[in-house]
Automatic annotation (TrEMBL):
Coiled coil residues, start to end: none
Domain of life of the source: Eukaryota
Catalytic reactions of this protein: cytidine + H2O + H(+) = uridine + NH4(+); 2'-deoxycytidine + H2O + H(+) = 2'-deoxyuridine + NH4(+)
Keyword 4Fe-4S: no
Alphabetic keyword roster: Hydrolase, Metal-binding, Zinc
Described purpose of this protein according to its UniProt entry: This enzyme scavenges exogenous and endogenous cytidine and 2'-deoxycytidine for UMP synthesis.
Family membership noted in the UniProt record: Belongs to the cytidine and deoxycytidylate deaminase family.
GO CC annotation: cytosol
Domain CMP/dCMP-type deaminase: residue ranges: 6-133
CDD domains: cytidine_deaminase (cd01283)
EC number: 3.5.4.5
Protein name according to UniProt: Cytidine deaminase
UniProt enzyme class: hydrolase
Length: 137
């Protein structure tokens, strides 16, 4: 089920903290993400831009890569934070596909700058998706 109480607040706070470390001199659009593993550990990431724009890294993929590098491949939830005031931040298409690699049945908390959020299942963010199991068909 969805996160509640202190667990949810910690995940949201860690995504906000990650956002403060974003390196985004070109877009000036900081994003932070915090990923909760099935084992209860949290890995955070921030966007990191590059003068060669295509070499930049999104916060969501950064958090996933950190978790993978530490041996985690099962995830429960991710919170994503930005400075957007009027809309909830959503992951880009590339991040959605990377997230999908690790299942469709986990929650993604999409926030606004004021801390309000909505929660979506990954399968809602990437319907009719392609994943590892499709390679076996």
């Amino acid at each position: 089920g969805q996160l509640r109480g202190d667990h949810l607040q910690l995940l949201l706070r860690r995504s906000q903290e990650a956002k403060t470390r974003a390196y985004c001199p070109y877009s000036r659009f900081p994003v932070g993400a915090a990923l909760l593993t099935a084992g209860g550990e949290i890995f955070s990431g921030c966007n990191v831009e590059n003068a060669c724009y295509s070499l930049g890294m999104c916060a969501e993929r950064g958090a996933i890569q950190k978790a993978i590098s530490e041996g985690h491949t099962s995830f429960k939830a991710m919170a994503i934070t930005s400075d957007m005031r009027d809309n909830f931040i959503v992951p880009c298409g590339a991040c959605r596909q990377v997230m999908r690699e690790f299942g469709t049945d986990w929650d993604v908390y999409l926030t606004k700058a004021d801390g309000t959020y909505i929660v979506k299942r990954l399968e809602e963010l990437l319907p009719l998706s392609f994943g590892p199991e499709d390679l076996k068909k």
